[in-house]
Amino acid sequence: MDWFFDHGVRILGIIVALALVYLVFRVLFPRLLARVLSHPAVDMDFRRRVETLASAANWLVLAVLIVIGLLTVLPELGINIAAVLTGLGITGVALALGAQLLVRDLINGIFILLEDQFRKGDYIAVGNLQGIVEDLSLRRTVLRDWSGVLHSIPNSLIGTVSNYTRGAGGIYLTVRVAYGEDLERVRRIVDGVGDSLARDPVWAQHVVEPPRLAWVEAVDDQGVVLRVRGMARPGCQWELSGVLRQRLMEAFVREGVRVPFPSHVLAQDEDRKG
After folding, report:
1. Helix 81-98 to helix 100-114 angle, to the nearest 10 degrees?
2. Which are the contacts of 109, defined by CB distance < 8 A and separation ≥ 6?
């Protein structure tokens, strides 16, 4: 009983205090974050970065509180902290050798967050995998591709990252027309479709630079290859490209622009008599 009132109460007080700190953090931090993100001046880019850092902050605060709790509770149990730290230093070397990948995950995760390489909601490519970042922590990155498959990638395996939603997204289309078409007329039609898309009440907010006929890409046996180029808001380039393809097809049909069709020669052997 003497030990309990002398040390047990202290241990219980430390645990309760740390638990209250964590609960206060879990309650107040999301509310403060929601208030900051609800401000009209906050753009989507800043919102994604804050949400990404917040997801890692919960894990980090919990880990810090656990370490503080151990360092304060162990002396109350009569355990020498200096001896424990010395032992942890010796065993830590052995554990580090067996957990090198975990350490690399954490270190690479820290650099990903500090350098702001990508955030939650970004569309990125890592190696042969592409998808939207659904979750990001110090240990792993979770991607969901277009087919709905969820990929969990350890941060230590992340090398070169291609971020498709940072800055303006490019619209690059290849258009083929038949030989003999007036390219200046085709240019006016394509530019007109791009201007119409930029003025459209539904799509205008997603267009940064109206699509234009940029240059002649190639002249081959399948016609004249033209390159159409424009700029869109991050993440909108794929949907805008689909809408632009549809409108170009409709405009070509309406204006009578001929497109090349592959020709096939069928050879048929006659049966020999006799």
Report:
1. 90
2. 56, 136, 137, 138, 139, 140, 155
Distance CA 221, CA 208 (A): 35
CA atoms within 13 A on the CB side of 15: 9
The residue type of 189 is: I
Q: Provide the phi-psi class of 116: left if phi over 0, else alpha when psi is between -120 and 50, else beta.
A: left
Tokens representing 4 are 């309990």
> What is the reported pTM?
0.54
- Along the 274 residues of the chain, how does pLDDT read in single tens digits? 555 555 666 777 778 888 888 788 777 776 776 666 565 555 555 666 666 666 667 777 777 778 777 777 776 666 666 666 665 555 555 555 555 677 787 788 878 877 778 888 888 888 888 888 888 877 888 888 888 888 988 888 888 888 887 766 778 888 888 887 788 888 898 888 888 888 888 888 888 888 888 888 888 777 888 888 888 887 778 888 888 888 888 888 888 888 776 655 555 555 544 4
Q: Yes or no: say if 226 and 172 are a contact pair by the CB < 8 Å rule.
A: no
Give the separation between CA 192 and CA 175, rounded to whole angstroms: 15
Between helix 44-76 and helix 81-98 the angle, nearest 10°, is 130
Helix H or strand E encompassing 264: none
